[in-house]
Structures are given as C-alpha cells and as structure tokens.
Design goal:
Order of helices and strands of chain A: EHEHEHEH
Radius of gyration of chain A: 15 Å
CATH architecture of the largest domain in chain D: Orthogonal Bundle
Number of helices of chain A: 4
Largest sheet of chain A: 4 strands, parallel
Distance between the termini of chain D: 27 Å
Shape of chain A: globular
Strand order of the largest sheet of chain A: 2-1-3-4
Oligomer: heterotetramer
Number of strands of chain D: 0
Order of helices and strands of chain D: HHHHHHHH
Number of helices of chain D: 8
Number of domains of chain D: 2
CATH superfamily of the largest domain in chain D: Alpha-helical ferredoxin
Chain lengths: ~140, ~675, ~325, ~130
Amino acid sequence: MQIKEYKPLIVAFCCNWCSYAGADLAGNNRLNYPAEVKIIRVPCSCRVNPMFILRAFQRGADGVIICGCHPGDCHYTSGNYYTRRRMALLFSMLDFLGIERERTRVEWVSAAEGAKFATTMNDFVEKVASLGENKRLEDLRCKR
Amino acid sequence: MQRIGVFVCWCGSNIAATVDVQAVAQALKNEPGVVFSTDYQYMCSQAGQDMIKEAVAEHNLTGIVVCSCSPRMHEATFRKTAAAAGLNPYMVEIANIREQCSWVHKDIPTGTEKAIILGKAAVAKVNLNTPLTPGESPVTKRALVIGGGIAGIQTALDIADAGFPVDIVETKPTIGGKMAQLDKTFPTLDCAACILTPKMVDVAQNDKIRIFSYSEVEEVSGFVGNFDVKIKKRARYVKEDLCTGCGACVEKCPMKKVPNEFNLGMDNRPAIYIPFAQAVPKVATIDPNACNMLKNGKCGLCARVCTAGAIDYTQKDEIIEEKYGAIVVATGFNPISMDKFDEFAYSQSKDVITSLEFERLTNAAGPTAGKLVRPSDGEHPHTIVFVQCVGSRCENCAEKGKEYCSKICCMYTAKHAMLVRDKYPDIETYVFYIDVRTPGKNFDEFYRRAVEEYGVKYVKGMVGKVSPEGKKLKVQASDLLNNKQLNIDADLVVLAAAIEPDKSARPLATMLTASMDTNDFFTEAHPKLRPVESPTAGVFLSGACQGPKDIPETVSQAGAAASKVIGLLAKDKLTGNPCIASSDENMCNGCSSCERVCPYGAITYVDKEFRMPDRTTKVRRVAQVNPAVCQGCGACTVACPSGAMDLRGFASNQIIAEVDAICK
Amino acid sequence: MQKITLESLVEKAVSLLENGTVTSVLGWKKGEFDYDITPAVFESADELKKDFVWNDFCGANFSKYLVSKTCKSEGKILVFLKPCDTYSFNQLLTEHRFDREKVYAVGIPCEGMADINKVKEVVGDGISKIESNGDDLVVTTIYEDAPVKVTCKDVLAERCVNCKSKRHVAYDELLGEEGEVIASERFDEVERLEKMTPEERFAFWQNELSKCIRCNACRDVCPACTCEKCVFDNPNSGVENKAASNSFEEKMFHIIRAFHVAGRCTDCGECSRVCPQNIPLHLLNRKFIKDINEFYGEYQAGAEVGLRAPLVDYTLEDLEPGEVFDRRDNNA
Amino acid sequence: MNNKMQNLRDEIILRSGVNPSKCMACGKCSATCPAYNEMEYHPHQFVSMVKSGDIEPLLASDSLYKCLTCFACVDRCPRGVEPAKLVEAVRLAAIRQQGANHLKPDMVPDMLDDDMPQQAIVSAFRKYTK
C-alpha cells in the first residue's frame, strides 16, 4: 500500500501592491515553491480579518501566512502598521490557546522580492509540514 | 444565481505546458453558477476577447472568470472586454494560473490540481460579486505649488501657461530658492541669475500666478481635485501692496549686524531687508528677532523714511484658505550640517567652507563682490583643496552623513575648480575624489576640460584630516593611484557637502499623507513609470524633494509635474475607484474605530434616525464613507467589531468564499 | 461588608428623583434568591424604598445599560457606578455609545463583591437566605437549622481579589470615600498559563472551552459588546453560528470575541461572573491586555474619555509579529 | 587564488568581522593613517588585498607591526569597513604560524631601557606573540 505523502495546505493572503506582485515576480523568475501554497489577493494586508484566518483553519488549512508591503512602504501609507499590531496580538493569543505558533506568520515582501517570496513559502511550508496536520483548530465536519 | 462563464487561457505554452487547461475548463464546468467553460490559446488576444463577448451574449452570462496570467497584467483588459459585452466590468475575476501556478510548479498533475483550485476560488468569488460603479467628484481648477525655487517656478509657469491659476507658497521672503544663490551653472557656465531672474519676473507678471512669499502651508484636507488648504502668511511688517522696494528703509535701518542668511552668514544685513536685488516680490521684510521697534518699541526709523507708508509694525500673521485641485511639492534641498565632521575642521576654521558658501564667495553679488579671498583674513588664496563626497555615500554614519550619492557635487566641484583656474591661474586647485560621476549631456567633456585645459589636479583618494596650523590648513590625504600619502598646505578647503531634503518636507508629507523614504525624500508613485506623482492622488513632485537633482533635471521634472497637473485640471470630473469601503448603517455602532484607522480621513459620522421594530424612533451615530477619498485599503473593515464596514470588490463574504474554496 | 449603606443610596436616589434631576434610577433589585441580584429601573420613591437592594452580590456593571436607556427616555437617568464600572462608562463614552447629557452618575465605593460559588463551596447547596453582618455573611440553608457564618474576604470574587482600582474615573457626584488605583496581581494567572507548554495550554483551554454552551451570556453582559448586531448573529458575516456544535466553534467564538474587545476591554470581569459554566473567560481578555501593555506600553481602557485604543493606533517601531515569541522566549 | 589562500582569506574575514566588499576605495583610511609612511602596504591596500586573496605579501610584510591600532581608519571610514580590524586579523594569521612570533622573549632584554615604559613592552609582547 502506498502511503500518501502528507502535504500541508497553506493559505497566503497577499496585498495587491507589494506581496502579490512579489509572488508574480517569483513566477516571472520561475522560482519554485510548493503548490500547496494558495494565494488570496487582498488590497492591503490590513484587509485580513482574524475571522478569515480562523475560517481557513476551520476548513482544514494547516498554515496561514499574511504578506504585505514592508512597514513604511504600504501603498495606503499605514495599513500594514495596523496589520502588524493585529497579527502580533492575534498570533500571541493563538499561542496562548496552545495552537502551534509556527502555523501562523506575517512576512513583508516587496514587489521586488520575488526570491524572498519563494524562500519564505518554501520555509513556511517546510515548518508547517514538520508539524503535521492541524488538529487543534479544525472543524471535523469540514474534513476532506 | 449568477450565470458564470469560465475562460481558461493557454498563454501559448506558458500555461499549457504545466497545466492541463482542458482539464481545468472541464473541472470548473461543474462549479455552482458556471454555465459555460472553455479554453483558448491567447485569451487576451482580439480573438480571445471576441470569444468572451460572444459567450456573454450566447449564454446570457452575468459573471466571468478568466484563468490566465496575473490580474496585475490583464485584469483591466478583461474588464474592458466585459464592459464591451454589456456586463459590469467588476463582474470579472481572474484566477492567476500563470505567475502563481504554471511558472512556479513543474509537473502537470500538480499544476493542474492547483489551477483548478484557484479557478474554483475565483468562481466562488464571482458568485458573490455585485456590479460596481465608480463615483464622481468635481475638480477645482487651481493648483498649489509648495516651494518657489527653480522647480516650483517652472511648474507654476507651465501650469499657468495652460491657462490654470496657480499659487506659489514660499517660506522665504523671495522666490528663487537655491539657484538664486549660485554663481555660474554647469556645464555651460552661464550665470545663474541671468537665466533665473527673467523667470522670476515672468512669475511676478503672470496674472494667473499668485505668490505667497514668507508663507507656509498650515493645514491640508480634502482629496484629489478638492483640496482645502490653509496658508499662513507670516507678518513681514511691510504692506506688500504699498512697498516699492526702493530700499531706503534698508539703508537707514540702524540694526545692521544680523547674519545674512542669503550669503550663508558670511556677511551681515539690517533688521529690515530685501534678500537680494532681483528678489520677487521685491518687498522689504522686517526680521522680528532683530528689529528694535518690534522687540521694545524703540526706533521706528524705517516707518519715518518710507515715503510709501508701507511699514506696519502691527501686522499679524494671516491665514488664507483656498481650494485646489492639485498640489505640487517643490520643497527642494539643503546641504547637510558639517558640524559633525570634525576631521575637516569645518567648525574650527573659517577657511573651511561648503560649496554653497563658495558659490556666494565667487558671486559678483556676494559678500566679497565676487573677489575670491580667504574668509578669515581676506587674503588671496594660493592653494585650494576641494573635497568631494563629504557626507555622501556614508554607510555607517547615518547620524552624520547620508547613504546616497548627492549627484550634483562632481559637476559643481569641477565647475568651481575650473572657474578658479580661469580667473586666478596662480591658484593651485586639488580635487580629491572617490569617483567622478558625470553622466549628463556634455558633463564628462566639461570635467575633462577642467583637467586638461585648466590644469585642475584631480587626485583619486580622500582627505583624512584637515588641521589649521597658523594661517595654513594642513591637509592630509591619500593619493591612491600613486600610492602616496599627500600633505598639502592649503589656504582654503571647500567641502562638497551632501544634500538632504528641506526640513519642512516631513511635516508637509504628514499633512498631505504623501509617503517618504527613510531619507525624507518624497516617494514617487512608481520609480520609473510615474516619477513625478506621489502615491497620494493629486499630489505631484517637482525637483530635489524627490531625490538629488541638478538644474536641467529639475526643470524637466518640473515640466513633467506641470503636465500631470494640467492633465488633472483639464478634467471636469474625476471618476474614482469603485472598490471602496461602505458601512451598513443598520449595524454601525458609531464607535469611531474605523475613523481612527482610516489613512485618508474618508470616514465621517452623522446622527441618523432609525425606525425601531416597536415603531419608536431612535437616533444613532453612524459612519459614512466619502467615496472620493476612500482608496479601498480595508483597514476599517477589520477595525469594525460589528462587521458593519465592508469593502466592495473584496467583501468579507467574498474572501471567506475564496478561503472555503481553497480549503475544500 | 460594603461600607456605604443601602439607606444612603436610596436617600440619594429619592432626593434626585424628587428634585427633578433625574426621572429614573438604574439600580439593583432582588432576584429569586438573595444572591441573584438583577439590574432594574426605578421610577418612584416608593419603588426604590420597596425593591432597591445593595449588598455583597451587587456586582452588575450598569454602564452597558446606558446604551439602550439613554436613547429611549427623554429624561436623565441616575446610575450608580462602582470604581471598576466607571472604566466601562468612560470607554463607552469614548466610543460615542451613549449620551452623557442624559446620565447622572453617582460613584459609590466598593469593598469587593462576593462570589456565590465560593460561598457554596463552604456552605453547600440549598441557600435560602444570606444576610450581611459586619465582615461576615450569615447564610441559612434549607438543610441546616443554624445559619453558617462566612467571612466575606474568603469568598471574594476573583476579579475583586485582583481589583485593579478603587478610584472612580468618572462621576457627577461621589458618595463615600475615593480610593486609589491598585497595583494588582491580576496577570499572574495569565503568566502561569504562558509558562506551560503549548500542549498543556491547549489541554487547559480545550477543557475549559468545551464547557461552553454558547448561551452568549458573556457577550450579552459585556460592556464592550454593544454592537447593534453581533457578527455571530449576522447571516452575512460568514461566521454566524448560534450554537457551538464542536470544539472549533467554541474557540472561534471566544477568540473573535476577545479580539473584538481587545484594547477596549476594561477588565471589569463581568464575562466570567455571568458564565454559567464558570469558564475563566477573563483570562482571554487579560492576555490581550497583558500583551498590549508589554508590546505597546501600559494602557488601561476607559482610564480617560477619548483615549486611542491600541488596535486603532500604531508606531513606526512596533514589534513584528514574529518577534513576539522571540521576546517571550528570551524573557522566559 | 589557490585553495589555501582562499581558506586563509575566509578565516581572516571571519575573524575580523570585516566585509571588504563594502569598501568603495575612497582611501580615507590611508589618508588619515598616522603610520602611513612607515608602512609598505597601507590600510586601503590591506582591504583590497584581502578582498582579492593576495595575502602572502601581507603576511611577510613589516607593515603588520607598523599599524598602531589607533583606529583612526575605523572612525573615519564612511562605509564602516574597519580596516584596523582587518590588519589585526592578518597579524594574528601571521604570528599564529609555527615559530612566527614577532616578539620573542630573548629579544626583550635588548629593548629594556629607561625611556621605554615596561608596560609598553608587556602589551607589545601580548600583541605580537601567539
């Protein structure tokens, strides 16, 4: 019997102006990263509601990463500063509830950092894969 | 229920090589709402677009999903296609299966599987799309130029030339800026005043241009096309409309020992002054920190000699409120302070000067009437050492210098050395350089002439220290090409100080919500393609406030900024981005969280009456979004605890639908 | 144990009603038992004299009631505020949730409220009567003939053991003596949890939150949860659910609720007081408060009207989300 | 550059913590160096020669012992290259070779005279001896 290799499911929220463009650049430069990463485009990282993150975990995501412009470079001048506070507090809370802290991450990726995008995703997928399936924040009804 | 058409693009082999496009089209056929699904070699081609239009007509589609390259590439194209087919352009969603799929994954099963999931997410989103229409706002046909240097002057002249009124706000008593302080200009060596002052006169005489000199911008609100600006006109204690600029008051003023900022403190001026002969407006200004009459009421001489009756010791600062459609920032630059560069002995010796001071020292209208002498004793110098890159290209000394190349120093230093040798062939001139950077029309030829024809001694290397000894300045430097350490007895040392943005730029940027880089230079909307626009709509950049620039570059950028302003003011109405926030008044608590995070001040509150289920009425405070100001970042949607605030085009339920589709 | 007497409160309320300053009074009323005190609106001196109560079980924070009370009635309402209630009062004012002009706030001192569960631990079930007597509570049960004496201090509610302030930050009039802000040890329990392994923490919360029956009492009593419509009741929010059908939704509800009140929660402790399952919900809020204090500087919601809550603010030098853990690991 | 030199270069860079690639060849280190005229190779040459792996001549040169470690070059360098630290690392590489101590105990008696502070000899001994 062949054992199916465990592949984590990663949801990446990317801001339209920097990180989504950075992801495009990774594509332009043919830089590989795992296909388990699925990108959702948002106008700014500050559009990402904690509810979206929890929803993703509920539906079976194993890791959620939020990418935005570097602090100071936000297209909307200050959106990512709010993201930074919100996510620092939210991730700390998830950790407080015993959720593995490696399952969540915020990374600043500029439109020029295609290579950083690919490296970040490779690294994130590897870390999440080593944790195995997300069992602490899942909804059994939503299991595949 | 939507009727969705799915169009999967091959992009030649760009997508088709790693994604089984037919399988994707087939798989998406079964998604809820999808009534038609197909694939094609080049969806963005005319034939591909026609295919979409036909399908819309044939299948009565209400939404479109294109699985293709990045939406950053062709979203606009397909929105236009949808509009041409009679659909609302915002009923289109793109699944990015090229940059974020086929190009990053290698094998077909993986690529295809991911492409299908991305397609499903796009379908899930389109199912919840609603037609969006952009809002419109009027345009005030008047421009504001902040800064009256050559950048601001050129921008204002060009805008006025197109027939639009322009106001210039300048903090100094006169326009002219740094260029007015220069002697000659490279590479043609025409005198700065000769080419600048006619432009200043043009500004003064143009009836479309108003000059607010000795003024500053106090407050900016509003948005592109509709800025409300408060300008503080500082009291100059002279009635501008009455003063004829005759100068009698300047001559008679008994308080003559005020350091003259126009000559960088190298000589003195009276308490009432006109910065220089060609000043515009040519109006006297009283320095309140120096004038005895203003300080303790003892004098009043200028009022007695003024035949025009222009002196007014009771004048107060005045606030002028005006509406503008566009704002141009032209705040310019300053040389950095040399106080921290102890090794060059700038604060120890009067004979160590900056290049800008050197300009004044050689200028016919300067403190020495153009005679080049040592500032300490007025003697003729025999050896002059020029040091380049002082404070520029500093990596570790952020508190001291700047990391960037100041760009203009190589050329003006060559100019200085050449002019010295031209006028005083007996003076030895040394230029210490790290690199000589001359990328401009006729620039390198100019530098070579300095070396070859004028005998300026260029030494590759840096000066290590300057120590005043008696009347001389001992200069210790390295000559890297000859592998020697040089010791030169100099009479004058000229430091090519790095330049930095004017200090007024930072608070101004905050007022304008325009972004800046870490060096306080204004950021352009795109470094290559939109170099004269700020990311903040309606704010434009002219001159050195955006980065170091020489005069030819400044003037061309000033013209470019003007043409962008003209393009904006020529419109009667602006159409906005329809993907903006909106608040559901039935759910809004009026708690102000959204207002506090909005970077654009787009949210205001009104008290509104609501009918309650028990037929009573209730007045509640609710948020309202100004569609012309909102840029659609979505910060408010997360700040809002009740979920009353949502973002059109990226609505919460749409994003959740995408999450669900991906995690299914 | 309360130093201020019932009589002085009633007297104040009656005089304000009679001189026309207020038209109604928000106060406490006896419920089915002596210890289940419910908030009530009184409109006459007779009602006040008959039903108004004030004892060691008057824990209810009235601030939230002002949201609905002030938008309906025309006249002013008198509200009695204990020190911790005044923080919620200010926070609601910051958020423009009620009309200050329609409120007459009387600050009253509080010596800490009793927790009926702690009383029951001592005397057992079947309590038929509780009376205050100096520093003691005299409890009569249906099973015992003689009443049992319980020292108030021993049955003080957790939030009162860790009282953060006996100072009123808002009032129109103050009865009794003003107290001080107290350097409490309220974060000790949060710290204890932080020191556990993630597995232990997960087990702790799994155990606690699985008790949740989604009665929404925590939300309904919370002075920060005054939304016109809660996201969990809104079918369009994407997260609507009325009952927790599994462990995820319990967590989802409590995480989101804590996040929504983060930076706005004054730590009044009402959520834990009303929880019928005795889940220590205040720990979630305190975790956010502790983090905010550590990451962005000390912040007490409601300390003043108009404060900018930390989540709608930022500085250029804020901590990166990834640094949160580095920092904690280094401190540990 | 042979393998041995490559290793030596990497070791020097590692030990000094200096990144010679940051050098923009302005020569301010050499311009400011008080021991310039005593040295065969000057501070900027140390940076450039270490960068290119041309280390053998440096190891053999007396310049290693002419540097006063006054750190003027470190203070003035606009790029934060810190040439003095590089010189120190090369010096260490030299004296760590077998028998390459620059100052040997039997040389000390000759150096003793009334003008020379003994402390200077002790610190020189520390500096120039493995």
